[in-house]
Every structure is written in C-alpha cells, then in structure tokens.
Design a protein that fits this description.
- By secondary structure, this protein is α/β, with parallel strands linked by helices.
- It has two domains: 279 residues, 3-Layer(aba) Sandwich (UDP-N-acetylmuramoyl-L-alanine:D-glutamate ligase), CATH 3.40.1190.10; 136 residues, Protein-Tyrosine Phosphatase, Chain A.
- Helices cover 37% and strands 16% of the residues.
- An eight-stranded mixed beta sheet has the order 4-3-2-5-1-6-7-8, with helices on both faces. It has a six-stranded mixed beta sheet with strand order 12-13-17-14-15-16, with helices on both faces.
- A hairpin with a 2-residue loop joins strand 3 and strand 4.
- Helix 3 packs across helix 9 and helix 3 crosses helix 10.
- It is globular.
- Belongs to the folylpolyglutamate synthase family.
C-alpha cells in the first residue's frame, strides 16, 4: 500500500458512513485552516447528473488554450486519487498531496468527518495556496449539502442535465433531485442550464428566480449542433462555426455547446480561436475513449475496435448507445460491470435495438459493492440479451477476440473503467 493509500484509508475510517450529506462537520475544520474556500480564484461551480466532467473538460480546454491557469476539482478518480485535484493545469504531485492530507488529518484531530468532506477540505487548502486564474469545481453529489457548496460567491454556476441518480440521498422524483442540485445557485452569480426534463426545469427556474437570477437555457437561449461535421453554435452574441469536439459521441456537441454558452455568459476571456483550439485538444478519460494501444488492447486482433466508457446510469447509457448507433455497423460486444446501486436492466435498455452479438459480464475487481458477474449476466438474459459471465477483463477480451472484426465496448462503471486503464497501462495524467 502506498503512503497516499494509507492516509486515505485512515481518513475513510473517521466516519461510519461513506456518504452523510451535511456541511456541519466541514465548516469548523475549514475555519481552523483560515477558511480557504474564501480565498480562491474565480469559481465556476458545476452540478447535474450527467456531463459535469465533460463540461468542465471543455471549459478547462478553452481557458488553457487562452493562456489561463486553471484549477480543477473532479470526482471520483479513475486510477490515482491525484486525478481529483488539478493545480494550475497539472495534477497535484504525490508529495504535496500527502503533506496536505496529513496536515488536514492532524488538524481534524480524529473528529468524525466523511472521506469526501476531509478530502474536499484538503483540495480547498491546496487551491488557496496555488495561484491560478480560475477554479472549475464539480459537485460530488447533489448540491445543497454537497461538500463543495461552501463557496458562497462563485463567478457562475452550471447545472447539466438532471436525471434519476442517487435517489436514496437526493430524492425519488426529478423535482426532488433538481431541488437539491439547485442548491448551488447563488444570488449575484449568473447561471447556465443544460437540457432538462420539464419537471426538473420548472424547479430550477423557480429556484433561480427566488434568487433574482435569470438563467440562460440550452436549446432556448443558445443552440449548438453538428452541421456538416462542424459544431455550429448560436446565442444572443452571434454565431460560431467551430471544429467538432475531440470527445466522441453525438452528445458531446450538446456538452460542448453548454460549455461555450457558459464561457460567453460568464464573460470568460476566451476568443473564437480559444474555443476552436480547445475543441480540438480537449481530453476526458473513459468517456467514449478509444483504446488504441496497451496491454489489454494487445489481446484483441487487428480489425477489432476497443472503446471504454464509465457511464453508469440510464441517461449515460442512452448517450452511449446513440454514439454506437452513429458508427458504421460492426458486431458489438459489451463487456460490463456495475455497482449494486445500479440496475443492469436500466443500463441495457438503450442497447436493445443495437442487437449486441455478446454481453460479457464482470465483477468489478476490488469493489465489495459490485454486482456479481453471474447476476448481471442472468438479469441481462432475462431481458433477452445474449450474456455470460467472465472471470476477468483479460478473459472477456480473449472471448471477444474470437468474434470477427468486433467493436468491443467496456462500460457500466467508472470503477471498472479505472481498473481497465490501470491494467492497460494508460493512467490519466
């Protein structure tokens, strides 16, 4: 076990629950540190169910293409915890991370605090100590009681599409989930809203107006779509004809448009060249990512494709299925593992019309709360899919290799995606 892992293991034992939505434990610890959340560069706060990470990836790409230094806070990580904290453009170094975690751990003095709370406090401390021009801040879950929601004066807020997710914590209806996400909205901060279901939209609109905010809405106040292989964007400031996003999938045109709209609405220092360069160079691992080289890719013959996506809910699966449907036809093999908080049936439903040649299921390594591979396979077969369990990702890939010129998609969980990247030797940086 590395020193970082040992520290994180200690921190994870400070509270009996992994998730306990509250700000009461964080605020005293932040005060001991001099309230670093009040000493940050301008913050863009992002909540939603899907597309949070992609939206932040675009904003980071646009800003860095424009010569700006950007902090980023994302979760969860795929392979290394360092991925959660990007300081002025670079992932936090391990020595700096360990020293910061131990300083916060000592200051906390063993008091009950959740893992995400204490690590978010650490991130705020690091962000406050390192000069940058902007901080792109992603919520972990929800909004109102999310650990990131101690930032009281963000430059702007973005709420990406809301769908059913984490119902045990956020509510069982879209209205309840939207009300929770709306907690990041702040009086005096501009807001940009992604495409929403009517039920969620009404809640968000009322919450914004109570704070004196007039949001700008996707597909109403701004539009972005693929036209002749280009991204054509339009808002009240005019029309942009831009290159397509480097991230794969039709839904990425929507995500890129949301980020462009936010940049223009928040008056970020990005010109047309910054948008174009950012779209060409944006990266976001395990989001419809082609795997072209590595130890796992070597298990497949030439002519096979290997794709990796960490989407894990019904909305993400629908976007993933649309991406596959837009590609030239090929035999499709799904290799999937899922956590037991997700329903395999819901995830697989959008793939019904794609007629997968085979579904190979996995138990996600090292995750005690993962669905067993045999259970996922049985539930997939009950829905009419051809499915069988595999012992490992290597075994599944060797099985897929026997299907001529297949398109192989590994999906169902960010935890599985991280395991695949690590075993393939392609760790995010």
């Amino acid at each position: 076990m590395s020193r970082t892992d040992a520290i994180l293991a200690r921190l994870s034992r400070l509270h009996p629950k992994l998730i306990d939505l509250s700000l009461d434990r964080m605020l005293p610890l932040l005060e001991k540190l001099g309230n670093p959340q009040d000493h940050l560069p301008p913050v863009i706060h992002v909540a939603g169910t899907n597309a949070k990470g992609s939206t932040i990836a675009y904003l980071r790409a646009f800003l860095e293409a424009s010569g700006k230094r950007v902090h980023v806070y994302n979760s969860p990580h795929l392979v290394r915890f360092n991925e959660r904290i990007r300081l002025a453009g670079k992932l936090v170094g391990t020595r700096k991370l360990n020293a910061a975690l131990e300083e916060v751990e000592a200051l906390n003095g063993g008091d009950p605090i959740t893992f995400f709370e204490v690590t978010t406090v650490t991130a705020f401390m690091l962000f406050s100590q390192t000069p940058a021009d902007f901080l792109l801040l992603e919520t972990g879950m929800g909004g109102t009681y999310d650990t990131t929601n101690v930032v009281t004066h963000p430059l702007g807020t973005i709420i990406t599409p809301i769908d059913y997710d984490h119902q045990g914590f956020l509510g069982n209806s879209l209205a309840e989930i939207a009300a929770n996400k709306a907690g990041i909205l702040k009086r005096g901060a501009k807001a940009v809203m992604g495409i929403q279901h009517d039920e969620a939209r009404g809640v968000l609109d009322r919450a914004a107006r109570r704070l004196g905010i007039t949001p700008t809405w996707q597909n109403e106040d701004f539009h972005g779509a693929e036209q002749d292989g280009r991204l054509v964007f339009e808002d009240q400031n005019g029309l942009l004809d831009l290159p397509p996003p480097a991230l794969n999938g039709p839904h990425q045109f929507d995500n890129a448009a949301l980020a462009i709209a936010a940049a223009r609405h928040f008056d970020l220092p990005i010109n047309d060249n910054g948008f174009a360069e950012g779209l060409r160079n944006v990266t976001w691992p395990a989001r419809m990512q082609p795997i072209r080289a590595g130890k796992l890719r070597d298990l497949l013959p030439a002519g096979h494709e290997l794709w990796l996506d960490g989407g894990h809910n019904a909305h993400g699966a629908a976007a993933l299925a649309r991406s596959i449907a837009a590609m030239p036809p090929k035999p499709l093999v799904l290799i999937m593992g899922m956590m037991n908080t997700r329903a395999p049936e819901d995830f697989l439903a959008p793939f019904r019309d794609l007629h997968p040649t085979q579904i190979l299921t996995l138990t996600i390594p090292g995750e005690p709360n993962a669905h067993p591979a045999e259970e996922i396979a049985a539930r997939a077969r009950a829905q009419g899919f051809p499915a069988r369990a595999s012992r490992s990702i290597a075994t599944a890939l060797k099985t897929a290799a026997r299907i001529d010129t297949a398109r192989v998609l590994i999906c169902g969980s960010l935890y599985l995606a991280g395991d695949v990247l690590a075993k393939n030797g392609t760790v995010p940086d």
